[in-house]
Amino acid sequence: MDHTSFLERWFRRAALSIIIVFFMFPIFWIVLMSFQTNETILRSPPSMSFTPTLDNYMAIIAGRLDSNVASMGIDFVNNLMNSIILSVCSVAVALILGVPAAYAFARHKFKGSEDIAFTLLSFRFAPPLLVLLPLTLYFQEIGLADTYLGLVWVYQLICLPLILWIVRGYFEDISPDIEYAYRIAGHSWFSTFRKIALPLAGPGIAAAGLLAFIFAWNNFIFALVLASADKQPVTVGALAFVTASGIQYGQIAAAIVLSIAPTLALALWAQRYLVEGLSLGAVKG
Amino acid sequence: MTDTLTTRRRQLISPKVLPYVLSLPALLVCIGILIPFVTAIFYSLQRYRMSQPWNRGMNWGENYVKFLTDSDFWNTLKVSLVYAGSTVVLELLLGLAIALLLKKRSTVNNFVSIMLLLPLMTAPALAALMFKLMTNPNFGILSYFMQVIGFDDFRWGSSPGTALFTVVLVDIWVYTPFMMILLLAGLRSLPTQPFEAAALDGVPQLEQFWRITLPMLMPYILTAALFRLLDSIQQFDIIYAMTQGGPGDTLMVFQVEAYLNFFQSTNVGRSAALLLILWAITYFLSNIFVKNWLRLRERAKGGA
C-alpha cells in the first residue's frame, strides 16, 4: 500500500515536526516560565535548566504578590471564579433558550422561520462593539451595568447562535418518522420531544454546549467594555494583571497558564465533538 | 408528567403556534440586543462627544462625510484590510498544506491534529499576552532567536515596522488550526474514485492536486476563507492585548479605533459611524458566506 519514497517520508516527518514545534512551543515555553523565578527567567542566554518552583502559583492563589520593592494584593482567583460563573451561566441560559428554538426551526418550517434563524446567525458576524458601546450607556440607566445578569445576557450573542445552528443540524438529522410513530402511540408533543428528540440529539447538544463554553471563556471584548474589576473574567483580568504586576514575569506566566488550562483540558478531553461543532455542520468529517 | 396534564397541554398550545412559542424566548433575548443596534445608527448621525454634552445634536451624516477627507479613517480601512487579507491568505495556504500532510488517518496524524486544537482553544487575548512575554526585549525567547540569526534590533510589537508582522503571527498561531480542521474534513469527505483512476493512469501527484483535489475542495476553501475573513476584519482581542493599536496608529483597525474613540476621546458619533461602516462590510461578506455555506451543507447532506 505504501509507495512513498524514502525522501518523501523524511520530508513528511520533518514538516510534521516543524508544525508541532511551531504550534506547541508557545504553550510549552509559558508553562516553563510559570515554574521559574524572575532570576532564572531573566538569564541570558535563555536556558531550560532550572529548579522548578511553585512560588508563582502560590502567590496567585494566596493573592499576594511580594517583590523586593513592595508587596501588593492581587485577586486573580476572583477573575477565575468570574470566568467560571459567566461561562457556566451563559451556556446554561443558551441551552434552555436555544434547544427548543433549534427544535422549532428544524421540525416546523413555519412562516419566517428561515429569516429568523438567519437574523440570529447574523449576530455571530456583526461587530460586537456596535452593540456593546450603546449598551454600556443603557446598562447604566437600567442598572444592569457591572452585574453578572447583564453580562450573561450579552454573552448570549456568542452562545445562542452557536447552540441554535449546531443543534438544529442535529435535529434535522433525526428522521421525523420516529417521532410520528411515537406520537401516534398517543404521546404528547412534549414527551416526544423529551423522550425521543432530546436523547437522539444528545451528542450534538453536548458538542454545542462545550463549544459555547469555550467561546464564552475565551471572550475578551464583552467583559472589557461592560465589567469593572470585580466582575472581570480571566481574559481581561490577565491584561490588567500584566500592567499591575509590572516585572513579575513568572507570575504573569502562571496566571496565563491557569487561564488557558481549563479550555485546553476540555479540548483534549472532547476533541472529537469539537471538530464536528467547529465546522458548524458545514462538513461531516 | 401526568396524563391529564399532557392532554391539557396539547389543547393549550395548538400545533400552529407551537414553533413560535418554542422560539420566542430566544427571539426576545435577541430583540433586547437589537435595540442598541438601532441606537448606534442614531448616534452615528449625531455630533456627540461625552465631554461636551451641551454640543450634542443631529448632524445628519456629517460624521460619514468627514471620513472622506479624514486620513485616520483611510489608515484604519487600509490597516484592517491588510490585516484581514494577509491573515486569511497565509492561514489558508498553511492550513491547506497541513491538511494535505495529515490527510491519511494514522496514529501520528491524529495526534498532530489533536495537538493543533490547543492554539485554537486558547483565548486570542491570552495568546497575544503569551507572545508578548516571548517577544520581550529583555528575556523573550523569540527576541533571543532573532538575535541568534542576526537581527539584533528586532523590536516585534513595539516598532512600527514589525508590529503588523507580530500580530499577524499571533493570528496565524491561533487560527491556522481552524482552517486546517475545515479543510481536513473536506479532504477526507472527497470521493476516492477520481484519485484511484488517476493513480491507475499514472498521473503525477502534483497534477492530481491541481486537477482533482483543488477543484473538488474549492467549496470548502471558499467557506473557510470567508468565515475567517469575517472574523479577521473585526479583529480586536489580539491587537488590543498586544499593542492597543500602536505604536502610533500602525495597528488602528476598525474596532480598536472605535473603542479608543468611545472611551478615550469620548467621540461617540465618530465611533458609531466607524462601526456602522465595518458592519456594512461584514454584512456584505456574511451574505456571500451564508449562501456558500448553505450550498455546502446541502451537498454534505446529499453525499452522506
CATH architecture of the largest domain in chain A: Orthogonal Bundle
Distance between the termini of chain B: 38 Å
Strand order of the largest sheet of chain A: 1-2
Q: Which geometry of chain B do the CA atoms define?
A: globular
- Tell me what portion of residues of chain B adopts beta-strand conformation: under 5%
* Largest sheet: number of strands, sense, barrel closure of chain B: 2 strands, antiparallel
Shape of chain A: globular
> What's the total count of β strands of chain B?
2
Largest interface chains and counts: A-B, 99 and 97 residues
Helix count of chain A? 14
The fold-level CATH name of chain B is MetI-like fold
CATH superfamily of the largest domain in chain A: MetI-like
Mean pLDDT of chain B: 86
Please supply descriptive tags for the structure shown above.
heterodimer, A: mainly alpha, MetI-like fold, 14 helices, B: about 300 residues, mainly alpha, two-stranded antiparallel sheet, 2 strands, about 75% helix, disordered N terminus
Describe the protein.
- The complex is a heterodimer of chains A (285) and B (304).
- Chain A is mostly helical and 285 residues long.
- Helix content of chain A is 74%, strand content 2%.
- Chain A has helices spanning 6-34, 38-41, 55-62, 76-107, 113-125, 128-142, 148-173, 176-184, 189-200, 202-218, 221-226, 234-245, 249-269, 271-278; strands at residues 64-66, 71-73.
- Chain A has a two-stranded antiparallel ribbon.
- In chain A, helix 1 crosses helix 13 (249-269), helix 8 runs antiparallel to helix 9 (189-200) and helix 12 (234-245) packs antiparallel against helix 13 (249-269).
- The radius of gyration of chain A is 24 Å and the shape is globular.
- The mean pLDDT of chain A is 84.
- With 304 residues, chain B is mostly helical.
- Chain B has one domain (70-303): MetI-like fold (Orthogonal Bundle), CATH 1.10.3720.10.
- Chain B has 14 helices and two strands, in the order H-H-E-E-H-H-H-H-H-H-H-H-H-H-H-H.
- Chain B has a two-stranded antiparallel sheet with strand order 1-2.
- The longest helix of chain B is centred in the C-terminal third of the chain and has 36 residues, at 268-303.
- Classes of the chains: A mainly alpha (285), B mainly alpha (304).
- The interface between A and B is large, with 99 and 97 residues.
